[in-house]
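Example record for the data management plan.
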Amino acid sequence: MITTTHSDESCIFNNIRVVLCQTSHPGNIGSTARAMKTMGLTRLYLVQPKYFPDGQAVSLAVNAADVLDSAVVTDTLDEAIADCQFVIGVSGKERSLSQQVMTVREAAKEVQHIAQTQQVALVFGTEMSGLTNAEADRCQVLATIPANPYYTSLNLAQAVQVMCYEVRMAVTEGQLHYDEKPAELASQEDLERLYAHMQEVLTQIGYINPRAPKKLFERIRRIYSRARLEKEEVNLLRGILTLSITPKKHTKY
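Corresponding structural encoding:
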C-alpha cells in the first residue's frame, strides 16, 4: 500500500475545486467555505452568486474567511470548469437521461486518483432545485448522497460537507490529523491487586459471602477484563475503594 504524505495530500487538495452555481443565500456560501476548510479544501468558485461578497457569508464562514477572500466568481459554469479534466456534479435528483451515477464515496475514490495530477471540480446546483439539466450535462459523472429515500433534501452546505468529507477520507485513508497518545494498560499484577482490594471491601460491607465469594468474583473479573483497564484507571478505582471503607469525619457546627 502506498502511503500518502502531507505534501502529496496538499497537492491533491490544491487540484480540487468546489463550484457553487447561482447560490441565492450568502449564508450558504459562508457555510460552504467552512465545510471546505475543515476538510482541507480551499478553492471555491462561484457562478453568478446572487449576493457576494456579503457580511452574512463572512459571519457563517467563521475562521474560513480566507476561502471567501480567494473565491473566484464567474459568469458561467463553463468558465469555472474550463481547465478541469474531471467534473463531478453532486445531485440527488433522478434524471431520465444522465451520465454515470455513483455514490459520493465512489466518486471520492475517482477524485483521489485523478486529482493527483489533474484538475477536478465538484459542482453543486442552487439551493432550491439543484443542478439544472444543462449544468449536469457539463459533468462527466454525477455523484449522489445515499440518503433517506423518503426525504433526500439536504442543505447545500451540508451536501458540500459530506462530499468534501468523503474526498478527505479517500485521500488520507482516514488517518487522524493528530497522533493519539497511547495509554499505558494495567499490568496483570496491577489487576490482581485491584481484585484483591475489591474483594476485601465487598466482604467488609457485606456484599459478598466470605465463605463463597468465587462465583460472584468470577463475574466481576470478566467485567473488568473486557474493559482493558488502563493503569491510571486501576489507581482511580482503588482510590474509590479506599475511601469507601474509610470512616467519615463528622463536621461540628
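Summary line stored alongside the record: The first strand starts at residue 16 and ends at 21.
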